[in-house]
Amino acid sequence: MTVIGGKLITTDDVDSAVRAFMRTTPPQQRWDVEFSFDWSTADADRLTVGERSAVEFVTIIEDHLPGYFAMYDRYFPVDGSVDLPTFAHNRELYHFSVRWAQEEDTHARVLEQYQIASGMAQPQQLRTALAVEGQKLFDLPYEHAVQFFTYPLVQEKATQIYYQHLRQAVGDPLLRDILTRLSRDEARHFSFFADVVQKYLQRYGDAMADPIRDVIAEFRMPLADTIRGYWRWALRIADVARYDHTEAYEYLIKVINRAVDAKSDKVTELVAFVEACRTLSVR
């Protein structure tokens, strides 16, 4: 068991962020794979080759959830390997992470079901393909707790934006409905991580600047280093709908600006660095 280093926000701070997140989706607004869709209407013939490729790509990304979730369990354990205050902090975080994992697993299942119901793939063939990628180790080599919230802040917002772009492009109304629901979930997940990163900045200020900068300096979307031909595939799906994770950087800048009223030189430099990374990508 590896316990992450760096400063932690208080247990009360985590509890506040978790409670705010839980209130974002009342029970009557939740959805599931089995009862929220008419699967008989799924029709891959309405999709272009590029749109099918995009669905295949995001299915693999969403399906990596077990490895992603296990990483948080490793670094924020809820067992006797940590002292009591750390356990209390991690236990509050766990309330979020199990809901997050359940929702992300639903994303993986709904995309898998769409491929099967629409005729894109056969069940066994698809499960095997997903297992090949799912077995690969996923890890983030970070040293500071705040980095494990900064990374998904960017990743969740980038995924939300891509789903919005893809929804506008695809020809199957059922898939558009699915992508709408996925986009809304990712927006909610982003809001949680934004809340937590803001609390880190409010509590520790300059001490958070370098760890956050390091996340952006080395940022890769999940599985970018494990999927064979990832970058070629990412370019192909960008031809279908804009795909650029740096679109999410402006939202990180907004979080920083909200958290810090009077910016120190350190925080000002961090904002300038994130802005430069975003600008370089879109030129």
What's the layout of helices and strands?
Blueprint: H1 11-22, H2 49-63, H3 65-75, H4 84-118, H5 123-134, H6 147-169, H7 173-204, H8 209-217, H9 230-240, H10 249-259, H11 265-282
Could you explain the architecture of this structure?
The protein is mainly alpha-helical and 283 residues long. It has a single domain (11-25, 40-282), classed as Orthogonal Bundle (Ribonucleotide Reductase, subunit A), CATH 1.10.620.20. Helix content is 67%, strand content 0%. It has helices spanning 11-22, 49-63, 65-75, 84-118, 123-134, 147-169, 173-204, 209-217, 230-240, 249-259, 265-282. The radius of gyration is 19 Å and the shape is globular. The termini are far apart. The mean pLDDT is 93.
Report the β-strand fraction as a percent range.
under 5%
Q: List the domain count as a whole number.
A: 1
- What distance lies between the first and last C-alpha atoms, to the nearest angstrom? 43 Å
CATH architecture assignment: Orthogonal Bundle
Class by SSE composition: mainly alpha
The count of strands amounts to: 0
Parts with pLDDT < 50 across at least 5 consecutive residues: none
**CATH topology title:** Ribonucleotide Reductase, subunit A
Helix content: 55-70%
Q: Please report the number of helical segments.
A: 11
CATH homolog superfamily = Ribonucleotide Reductase, subunit A
How is the main sheet built? Answer: none
Shape, principal axes of CA atoms: globular
User: What letter string, H or E per element, gives the SSE order?
Assistant: HHHHHHHHHHH
